[in-house]
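Lab meeting notes turned into a lecture example. A postdoc, R.K., suggested we walk through two folding results consecutively so the class can see how the record format repeats. The first protein's sequence and structure tokens come next.
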Amino acid sequence: MEARADVIDAERAVREPAAVFESPEAVVACEELSTGEKVRVLVQWSVDARELRGTPDSDDRERPRDLLERIDAALAGLDESEWRSHEAPPQRQ
């Protein structure tokens, strides 16, 4: 699940952030993605986590909330002028 040191597939990262990156922090640290791509990945991860939050699986009930906080912190760490232009979440494909 951790991002590999070689080439990152940015399109896959946006579609399946948790499959490509170990954590939101790993997205921010990835030198291969532009700030805009990082924002798209983190926003999609947020959408995914919000969907999980509504599932009845008790083992995951707290995890999405914690993950959302980490995603918000990761977004806050990016250059705000870059990510504000990406206000609308990407559409799931």
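The second example is placed directly after the first for contrast:
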Amino acid sequence: MSSEQTETKVFTTGQVAMICKVAPRTVSKWFDSGRLKGYRIPGSQDRRVPKEYLIQFMQAHGMPLDNIVADTPTPPTTEDENG
């Protein structure tokens, strides 16, 4: 895991979806209904969720914090280290 990933403080809806193991649309619905706190990027419809709000949401809804503590899950790669 890169140092940039271990220091992530704000997540996209896609990252939150991976952490919570739900569809990105589900995260958008949580956000739009006010259940999950965050903010929109100015001039864009993109949503961002600060790490502390995600932790609070996950605790309030009984979700395991394994993925958030380990930080953002990385998608699998098909690169072969031997070339």
